[in-house]
Amino acid sequence: MVKQWTEGVALPGVRKIVTQAMIDRYAEASGDFNPVHLDKEFASLSQFGSTIAHGMMIASMVSQTMTEAFQDKWMETGKLKLRFKAPVRPGETVQSYGMVKHVDNKHGEKGSLICSVGVKKQNGEDVINGEARVAAPD
């Protein structure tokens, strides 16, 4: 584990192959039964052409990356601002990423880390991107 967080340090990524079964389980857990996620026939007539994963299901990969990097500090102090850029379909592989963008030290005290974060498809297309802020680890 990195003991000194400095600008440019990469965060651990999480890689997943999204399946319809994962999407179905997420619908059950979240209560979001929008047919664009679950009904293949309905979704085939939508702008997406097939079922797609819930955006928050994919966004959870960013939180998983931040939790792996910063453990309890993320859960206690983390803030996240995301933009959803593209849908994820069953069978697609996605990977989260992150990097320390800025170390915000206020008057020499421990401040916070600002990280650029996101999720990309295997072809490099951004699915989600944004920024995370977490209190600097002890």
Mind sketching the topology for me?
Layout: E1 15-17, H1 20-30, H2 35-38, H3 40-44, H4 55-77, E2 79-84, E3 93-106, E4 109-121, E5 126-135
Antiparallel strand pairs: 1-3, 2-5, 3-4, 4-5
Description:
The mean pLDDT is 93. With 138 residues, the protein is an alpha+beta fold. It has helices at 20-30, 35-38, 40-44, 55-77; strands spanning 15-17, 79-84, 93-106, 109-121, 126-135. The chain contains 4 helices and 5 strands, in the order βααααββββ. The protein is elongated and about 55 Å long. Helices cover 31% and strands 33% of the residues.
Question: What is the gist of this entry?
Answer:
With 138 residues, the protein is of the alpha+beta class. Helix content is 31%, strand content 33%. The longest helix is centred in the middle third of the chain and has 23 residues, at 55-77.
How far do the termini sit from each other? 13 Å
| Residues in helix, % | 25-40%
User: Nearest-angstrom radius of gyration?
Assistant: 17 Å
Helix/strand structural class: alpha+beta
Kindly list the characteristics that best describe this protein:
5-stranded antiparallel sheet, alpha+beta, single chain, 5 strands
